[in-house]
Amino acid sequence: MGAACCKPEAIDFEGEVNLFHFYLLRSVGKGAFGKVRVVQHKHSKTLYALKYINKPKCIDHPFVVNLRYAFQDDENCFFVLDLMLGGDLRFHLDRAGAMSEEVVRFYVAEIAMAVDYLHSKRIVHRDLKPDNILLDEKGHAHITDFNIAVHFSERRLLTGVAGSMAYMAPEVLTKRGYSAPVDFWSLGILAYELLFGKRPFRGRTNTALTNSILNEHLLWPEDAPGKCSSDGMHAIKSFLERDPNKRLGYRPGGGGMEDIKSHPWFRNINWDQLYKKEVVPPFEPDSKRANFDATHELEELLLEENPLKARKRKEGQDIETLTPEMRMMEEQRSYYHPAGASGSAANQTASSGTTATAVSSHLSAKMAVPSRPETPSDRIGLISKTGMDVEGQILDGGGMANMGGRGLRVSSQIDGRQDSFELRPNVAKQPTPLRNSTNPSTTEKMKDVGSAI
């Protein structure tokens, strides 16, 4: 009788999927934002990879575009992010041309703080460029697009060629190993481009561009002294130091951010006030017009055969008819309900035992009590300074009214503006023995391994 209290609680395999449905086996990987381990579904005996994120380690910084919610329907996966009404720096650079030194210094300071934060979490962004810097409605800069961000280690350098070529550091192109300093090289390219309207290293072909980045001297436009102070030019040149151990922003053993703060170009910046967003940005995006490319809306209206709208999930869907990849997504989503599940269960919030729900609960909680200086999108029922609600502001300021802005822009690999990419070794794909394995002996061996860890 005394052992009755320790009897395992019955698992409802017909209800919402949660962590109790799986045996936790070996840890097999670590990404930029979480870890991966092998798990086995207790009922189906199928093996899966489980990715999970520790809530206190989630990225949350004043100058990073933060994830708030993640969910899916039958056709799409959705990620809800901080709203940035100011547009990206590429848009403003294309529309208005080169920016003043004061504005560029302000952006570089905010971006440098965000980069230093990422590096403190052992994360390197690898794709800093004007397209990936978004402004909020007040004019503060935020880093976005972490598609190719990755964890780094000083003991084992990264070797993958990843990013946008025109912004790649020399050590990335030579494939000799790199880590955090590559972000500060990209920041130097970005600063130069914002100041002068063109990048310092250029080439008509990828080979020519690579040669320019690796070998050519840093040259300044003839009108550079009139656009940038000697301190500013020195800071940019220090970011573009080919030796990563001498690059501004990075110091072996740490402390690189202090070198940036003490550089004469940033002497007048109050870093504490900047972090709290108490410093008024020198440039404020025009709230009366759309700060985005209106052609995106034109494409949605005229070319999209299946425009986005809220749709209810299909009831009683036979997941066996789906592709293996889609079936896995359905089985692993936190609010999936197999056929026969009770209607009341279907309307409940997903169990806190699931990784996805733990993360989304953490994120949604931050909406109410931000752990960092406020971003405009933190406010519920956001009203802009023009007195219009955000939806009305977007419709009034943009939509089809500003089609006279930027036209369709074809991406080019030659000048480095192509979408970010990552080159991986061309290794022949091998069969995956862990997938859909139901061999009893294999199952027992995996259980033994899991219990031993």
Main traits of this protein?
453 residues, alpha+beta, Transferase(Phosphotransferase), domain 1, three-stranded antiparallel β-sheet, 12 strands, 31% helix, disordered C terminus
Low-confidence stretches: 334-370, 380-418, 424-453
The CATH architecture assignment of the domain at 80-297 and 371-399 turns out to be Orthogonal Bundle
The general outline is globular
Percent of sequence in beta strands: 5-15%
Helix content: 25-40%
Full CATH superfamily name of the domain at 80-297 and 371-399: Transferase(Phosphotransferase) domain 1
Contiguous helical run count: 15
CATH third-tier fold name of the domain at 80-297 and 371-399: Transferase(Phosphotransferase), domain 1
Mean pLDDT: 73
Broad structural category: alpha+beta
Order of helices and strands: EEEEEEHHEEEEEHHHHHHHHHHHHEH
CATH top level class name of the domain at 80-297 and 371-399: Mainly Alpha
Structure, briefly:
Helix content is 31%, strand content 11%.
Task: Walk me through the structure.
GO terms for molecular function: ATP binding; G protein-coupled receptor binding; G protein-coupled receptor kinase activity. Residues 338-385, 399-453 are annotated as: Disordered. Residues 22-266 form the Protein kinase domain. One of its GO terms (biological process) is G protein-coupled receptor signaling pathway. Keywords: ATP-binding, Kinase, Nucleotide-binding, Serine/threonine-protein kinase, Transferase. The strands form 5 sheets. This protein has a 3-stranded antiparallel beta sheet. Strands 6-8-9 form a 3-stranded antiparallel beta sheet. The protein has a two-stranded antiparallel sheet with strand order 4-5. It has helices at 89-96, 101-120, 170-173, 181-196, 206-215, 224-227, 230-239, 256-261, 271-275, 295-302, 324-332, 343-346, 355-368, 390-397, 440-452; strands at 22-30, 35-41, 47-52, 67-72, 77-81, 87-88, 123-124, 133-135, 141-143, 150-151, 161-163, 421-423. Residues 334-370, 380-418 and 424-453 have low confidence and may be disordered. Helices cover 31% and strands 11% of the residues. It contains 15 helices and 12 strands. With 453 residues, the chain is of the alpha+beta class. It has a domain at 80-297 and 371-399: Transferase(Phosphotransferase), domain 1 (Orthogonal Bundle), CATH 1.10.510.
